[in-house]
Here is the input.
Amino acid sequence: MLRTLLYRILFPFIIVLLVMILAILQMQKVTLAKFYDKELSVSDYLNWFSTHPANTVDVLTVLKAKQPNHHGGTTKDWCPSVSSDDGFVHISYLDEQPVCCMLGKGQRYVYYKENEQEITLLCGRWPRTEVVSVNKKGMRAVQSYRSANPIPQP
Here is the structure.
């Protein structure tokens, strides 16, 4: 009797938990597709374990914040060449260093795309993501990174 009661309680809970995990994985896939302006096909949705795009970059290389000479400062002082689609650039910390975007827990590499004027990066994980853009002319780290590691075009 107790065993039957446990099965009746635990089985639906486990099923709901699995459905939630799969839904979160799908939403991350949808977020990436939207970021890259890609339409997802039915097979993309059915392929639960599809690989993500390979074009990622170390966030400390491109989005490391510059601490101003004076005490404190605004986000613009820390991240002068970075803008966010949300209108406000968040500052996260990675390896005790400030970074100009909202990172997910344990996230070091972020997805990116670029055009002639800027590099656009997708920080965080669904549901907490932030899309930031870095002006290529205004950030020396981007220039030095690009000269050492050319970014392949998708």
